[in-house]
Write a structure and sequence with these properties.
With 331 residues, the chain is α+β, with helices and mostly antiparallel strands. It folds into two domains: 222 residues, no CATH class; 89 residues, Type 1 dockerin domain. 16% of the residues lie in helices and 22% in strands. It contains five helices and eleven strands. β9 and β10 form a beta hairpin. α3 packs antiparallel against α4. The relative contact order is 0.19.
Length: 331
């Protein structure tokens, strides 16, 4: 099958190709809001969802991905990757994730909408556009940054929904149809190929790459989205932020608090202070930053950096910011 051949080529290219300038695929990590009703049903802790999105230009088609996501612990951080009741404990997929395609998807209040999963464009719809889940193949665990991987992926399970479980997603997956039949991806478009829901205040690093049909011998390494100390992360490392870290520098601190306070009451992006991904910068975002103040994540895998040391929390600063928000709401 075509995706298997592309997978082999992409794996080989991880050690041979140093530049991917010619590639017409790009990958981004996008925070999305979690409905409060669903969040409360999932956990009493902070619940955040991120989607791995691919953007392609005409002439290119995504057909393979490989990643290893590992959550951090310590330095005040804890949590796990959420596996919803309809989660596939073997392949890390849920076959009814067409929630952005109209009828048939999960409602925003349904916890299954926030599963941790991998997918193919059009949520695995086959060439007839009728059967979801039929084109997704999982080959095993990731080969990146060192390979080969194993024949068995490491995926979250419904039994692992505790602070001590579901710390890792390690997987290679692809589209057995080579993504040739999904008409919605013939031109410039974006779509989801993975989703990660984190319960708790932790974050982590996603290491991996995507591959396409137009440049099948070239891995498109995940972009380094970190700032400050995390900007020195090695190739193919993407930062899944810890709770409240709007600046993406690995520490939830005064910088993040200032960002939320400065934009309070406005619409905005994650780095502008919308740390819960709902498009608004408000009390919910402030609560996340305050609750996570002082937490920090260690250096990413493969980095020569020492561990990041979080700044000590300042109760005076936090209470002052909360008082300022209360005054703004009264004005």
């Amino acid at each position: 099958m075509r995706w298997v051949h592309a997978l082999g080529a992409a794996v080989a290219a991880t050690t041979l190709v140093g530049s991917v300038a010619q590639a017409t695929l790009s990958v981004n990590l996008v925070p999305v809001p979690v409905n409060p009703t669903a969040a409360a049903a999932i956990s009493s802790n902070t619940v955040r969802t991120f989607q791995l999105k691919v953007t392609q230009s005409a002439g290119e088609k995504w057909n393979v991905g490989a990643l290893k996501l590992t959550l951090a612990s310590g330095n005040g951080l804890s949590g796990y990757l959420y596996a919803s009741p309809n989660h596939d404990n073997t392949l890390a997929r849920n076959s009814n994730f067409g929630f952005n395609q109209g009828a048939g998807g999960y409602a925003a209040t349904d916890v299954n909408r926030y599963d941790t999963f991998v997918s193919t464009p059009q949520f695995d719809v086959n060439s007839t556009g009728t059967v979801q889940g039929s084109n997704l193949n999982v080959a095993g665990s990731s080969d990146f940054p060192t390979g080969p991987g194993t024949a068995t992926p490491v995926v979250p399970t419904t039994a692992g929904n505790t602070s001590a479980g579901n710390q890792t997603l390690d997987i290679v997956w692809g589209d057995q149809a080579g993504n040739q039949a999904t008409t919605a991806t013939d031109g410039t478009t974006s779509y989801i190929v993975g989703q990660f829901t984190v319960v708790g205040n932790t974050g982590g690093f996603i290491r991996g790459y995507s591959g396409g049909t137009a440049a099948s011998n070239t891995p498109i390494f995940f972009p380094n989205n970190g700032t400050g100390p995390l900007a020195a992360a090695s190739q193919g490392t993407m930062y899944l932020p810890i709770a409240g870290d709007a600046s993406l520098d690995g520490i939830t601190n005064q910088t993040d608090l200032n960002t939320v306070v400065g934009s309070f009451g406005n619409a905005g992006t994650y780095t502008q202070g919308d740390v819960n991904g709902d498009g608004l910068i408000n009390q919910s975002d402030l609560n996340i930053v305050v609750g996570s103040f002082g937490n920090g994540i260690g250096a990413p895998p493969g980095s020569a950096l020492g561990a990041l040391v979080p700044e000590p929390a300042s109760l005076g600063v936090l209470f002052g910011a909360m008082a300022l928000m209360a005054r703004k709401r009264r004005d």
